[in-house]
Amino acid sequence: MEAECGNSKEAISVATLRRMPTYLRYLKIAREKGVENVSSVTMAKDLNLNSVQVKKDIGFASKVPGKPKIGFNVAELIADIEELLGCYNIKDAVLVGVGKLGKTLLSYNGFKNFGLNVVAAFDENPMLWNTEINGKVIYPVSKIPDILKQSGAKMGIIAVPKSAAQEVCDKLVSSGVKGIWNFAAAHLNVPDGIALKNEDLAASLAILSQQLTEILRNEQLGAAKK
Q1: Separation of alpha carbons 67 and 123, rounded Å
Q2: What are the tens digits of pLDDT across the range 55-72?
């Protein structure tokens, strides 16, 4: 899967896009420390990434080539990456499912740094209706069409149980949502023209567990050889 890069005629891969927030966080920390210029080699070393890959990634975002022995201007590179990620183009979203995960997502203020603004939330629990979390009003799920029409939001975040995920997805799509960010442990079917991103927390944990097991195994083998 590829996306069109605003600063280049080439296509930027999803893998590259996924690394961009990491670069952005690194650069903002560097800026706070007073760093004015940084090279892709230094970034790669500090982030423990491949220097060739980092140089290629930064090349997609930066409008100005890095200078020999100086690198990139940190402030300019931050602005270029934010533009590439759409951080200046705030996207309104709604969230469905105000359980523990949903409440955590509603309480997180960092989404705005990446151009996402949650305008409302929905849940089936009447005890939550007309209450607020982090300034976001919680409505009945039946109000999804009305609130989406009023707000114009085109993105939906799903944080409901697996059994309810497809029904919620269908309701969001029929109400005008064009992008779905799915945190439910469910495979969703969406029509053509709808963007879907699944966050599989179980899969991420499985990968982390496998990596941890491998590290511990190597440490044990190393200790046995001493």
Answers
A1: 52
A2: 999 988 898 888 888 899
